[in-house]
Amino acid sequence: MAPASKQPMSGLRSVKRDFSSSSLASASQGSAASEPDSIPWDPTPPRKLSGLEQRLKDIQDALNAQISSSETTLSQSQKRPSPSSQAPPAKRRQLPSTWQSKPEHAVQSSKPAYSSQASSSRAFGATRQVNTNETLVVPSASKSSAASKPAAVFLSQEQTHILRLVGAGQSLFYTGSAGAGKSVLLREIIKSLRKRYQKSPDAVAVTASTGIAACNIGGVTIHSFAGIGLGIESAEQLANKIKKNRKATTRWLRTKVLIIDEVSMVDGDLFDKLARIGSIIRKRPEPFGGIQVVVTGDFFQLPPVSKGMNSVKFAFEAEMWPQTIKKTFNLTKVFRQRDPEFVDMLNEMRFGRLSPKSIAKFKSLQREIVYEDGLGATELFPRREDVERSNTVRMSSINGKEQVYTAYDGGSIQDMQQREKMLANFMAPKRLVLKEGSQVMLIKNMDDTLVNGTMGKILGFVDPTAPPDDVGMLGDKPASKGTKDVKSAPAPVGRQLLPLVEFLQPGGSRRRIIVAPENWKVELPNGEVQVSRTQLPLILAWAMSIHKSQGQTLERVKVDLAKVFEKGQAYVALSRATSLDGLQVLNFDPSKVQAHPKVVEWSKTLETVADR
Fold first, then answer.
1. Domains of the chain by range and CATH?
2. Which of 15, 181, 342, 449 is the most exposed place for a label (fewest CB within 10 A)?
């Protein structure tokens, strides 16, 4: 007898289930007519929320409901909508009176716990320890049941071509002007390679020339990967030093692909040393011992640090560069700026050849810009001291109580000096001080509209353990009737309030989000976490350093070129802006716009992949 004709032994023969595609298609067509109100079934199993996540979700739902009701008529506002138009709200689970949260979600004593890996680390917040393994992303205003998913990444033809070459094992270098999608492509390359070598996670080494750049891509500095310290000795001496370091030697032997970001700050001599070290350690004559090398960056931006009286030596001037890098590409499509006039002005600035028309246009940007929404431009400074001074002055002008958030740091590095140096590279600060009214910037991508660089303002602070009905319309006057103002009901002693931030989005729309802690880490190819930090993904945004702004996209930028002192700084600062309308330039001086002659000449050798 054929298997299809077998009868079930249970005796339940009244229903026969056929899950073939044709059967499902016909069934859906038939039910569409007879059951217009049927609820669509999502095959993806729902993720169970933790206790604190559920509380944050309930608070966010309450805020969204209040925002919705404030925009309707009085009669409509008396009728509270359900979370979903297609299904009734889920029943709230009733917990026994003796129930308590698990330790990782509970409020700790005022003395923070200390990690065995980081004896000097303090718990997040002045009085609360955060579980560093858990990140809590609050749902967006448009989705009340789950956090928004990042938008799909669409690569241009030239980006796709480079991605395919990397997948085919080609060693290459690609560059492009600011906003040409270098970072987006690099993230896709890293994701693709890690998927390819998922059974050998330490086969892909993700590095960068600086700690900040390394943190931005989830990697380590090239010095840390190579195990060379400052790298001032000869290649042979450094190789002997590495041979005595079992972990460093293992990294060199197991690596199949080496990624180097922000190569503009890698000295040519260092590039030659690394190529030679790879040959010695791996006992193969090819540069880097035969490792596939993928390099990216923009040599028109910040250059390597010159040594004494010696002139700058770029990586492309290294003896081993042409033997290592088989292909060089220039990305030509700009995504950050949409205005063709602005794109042309920045390209002229990049090459250090400004036309009279562009000079006149840049000088006209000295005008004062007033934003009606109360959010000002982010002022970019070349020195960190100026950044701290500017943010401190702005903060002191705001009345109100400070909320202090102290990061929780961890990791395997025991040397305190090295540890602090690595932690300083994180965008997230060790100590974050906020007030109601503070101008802040998001420093981590949350979804397709809440991205790194999004500006916002603190409306108030929320107790994540409070019932949703206790959360008022912070920042609105008057608050919705029947709700309390959170500021008038502070959290019990020992609990940490979380900021409620109103973010400005493209097109002028706004989103209110309760911002919870996120995690950053510096991870070696073998998975060892050297340092990590758990902190709110926010920084004060009245001012920012040019160095830390590299790679950022900002809609409102203010730059005083009188304070710029290094080649490439003016270009980096001005190219952060998305449009001329949101850019203010003080003391524009064409002499500050310089490009290194070596870079200009070398750039003529780059290949392009034209979009069709």
1. 157-335 (3.40.50.300), 340-467+496-595 (no CATH)
2. 15
